[in-house]
Amino acid sequence: MKETSNSKDAKTIGLVKRSTHSIFSDESPSPVNKITTNTLETSSTSKRAACHNLFTEESPSPVNKRVKMKQFSVLMKNIFEIKAQNCRIIANQERIFNQLAVNGNNCPDKSLENEHSIHYKKFPLKDNDDLDYIEGLLNDDSFYQYLSKIISMYGGSDIGTFVKTCLDNLFTNSLGTNITITGKINKCFGNEPKLSIKTLKLFRVICETGRKKFPNNYMDDIVIKITSSWLRHSKERMKRKEANA
């Protein structure tokens, strides 16, 4: 009986040992442990990928951003200048036609006035053909006086701004590239023959009208300086306008 009892105790102890060994040495993880491990590994991989993207993602260079901002600023400035110039021209045209409507009844020959107004619609002159056409009309004293009256209504607080307004309204930038003060060829601007604005009747109308409009501060030097600058920058204005069109 005693041996039988000892045998049972030995079996019990052996069973407990095997169970304990199975719990602490089982090589295959339980399903719960396996899911937890996979989740942690996935989370760790995602974090490493996020960090990699954070430090390797390409971003615009500060230099490129500054260049683009500068280009945008120049573009907007050019657009505003063109819009302002167009507004000045439109305002001058409206003021002129309104003044003509008020003074229309004072014209001794209304049919002649209407004919001159049709010719005036050619302004601003686009090319040499338009210029030749107006130069021919200016041989007629009635048209000469009519154009002088129109020009006298152009805006300008002094002789300099008045002359610039006249040039903006009477000449296009394209025609301005074919004209210089003296007519001499400047190799910097090409070898094409140029017209001398000093020889044009149209320029004479501008000068005589300016002298009457500003008798106290009219100076030939100022007129020539403003005109020369306007003609010299005609090509630049034309290219800028085409680029912004």
From TrEMBL:
It holds the Pfam family DUF4806. InterPro entries: DUF4806. Transmembrane segments: none annotated. Residues 21-44 have a biased composition (Polar residues). Residues 122-203 form the DUF4806 domain. It comes from the Eukaryota. Residues 20-44 are annotated as: Disordered. This is DUF4806 domain-containing protein.
